[in-house]
Amino acid sequence: MSRFIEPVTLRGVHVTLEPMEREHAPALRAAAADGELWRLWYTSVPAPGQEDAYVATALDMRENAHAMPFVVRDRVTGDVVGSTRYFHVDPVHRRLEIGHTWYAKRVQRTSVNTECKLLLLGHAFETLHCIAVEFRTHWFNFASRTAIARLGAKEDGVLRQHQIMADGSRRDTVVFSIIDAEWPAVRAHLRHQLDRPRPAS
Asked: Are 90 and 99 spatial neighbours (Cβ–Cβ below 8 Å)?
């Protein structure tokens, strides 16, 4: 019997999303070091020395919780520049969440996130035939909230004291979603964003 989500490689113009494997740990460490991303208290980026455990947890989710973790590879440089994941997958109701997403500082505010979301959403709606895709983020992760809204996702609400963080603080989680009827417009919007000329850096 096949699983709802099987390992798959998703290729775009700018990035390739590859199923995460144990051997990706050193590359993830290098990506996280660009910007010292683990210092952001409201994210779950692996700190130095924690990459093996991070990957092991992600692969355990893949085997036991219908999740599918990816590494994000820059197609120009060949470098791994981040990670993202399908998780909270509900095969019965054909829903899933996209999250655990982070990128090296040098590719933030570039086409990388836009194309990653185009690939992930396209696979979810067009291949897996999902009826809804969720995004969740910390109340205080204002950059993430803005980026999710910019995709075309709509805010569903806030889950108060939804999680207890590693430092003991209590996370309010902001929930967004895109439903299947909205996907054609969102897809057109994301393609337009990718096609726009970008100012020279």
From this structure: no
